[in-house]
Amino acid sequence: MYQKLKLAIYYTIFYNLPHSRFLSFSNTLRVWYVSKVLKLMPYSKLSKIEHNVYLSTGKNIKMGHNCRINENVFIQGAYIGNNVLIAPNVSILSVSHNHENIEIPIVDQGDTLPNPPTIKDNVWLGRNVVVMPGIVIGEGAIVGAGAVVTKNVDPYIIVGGVPAKFIKNRK
Question: What are the tens digits of pLDDT across the range 123-137?
Fold first, then answer.
């Protein structure tokens, strides 16, 4: 109940504060609230959380220090490392729909169990990326804009496309 109240305050006040390019203090307030009140990340003045960052119920979400999360990001659940860049309009999913029984409408089959993705340190997720449940994105990887990540991504490689495929090794 107390967690729901804290989330209600986040979505009523902090979620809607202006982008930091218009009012830099907005970012400070959002980072303070997400770290000190919701306790989803350690407090760091280097971190950025812009407006309209959806944090679901806050369950199965942990973020490292110096994370930069841009506007309109949807995080259903994820374990996010340190120094991660998340561009605008990214969706990080941890739950999907059951669909095994063709005799029952998908809408009536319920959801899968939560399976939060893991995004390791120093990762960059480009604009409009979708990360599917259970995916592991290795340290130092880059996911190109518009990619849909359906398989694990090795460390220090660049992937892109739908579904995301190997483009280049960073080493």
Answer: 999 999 999 999 999
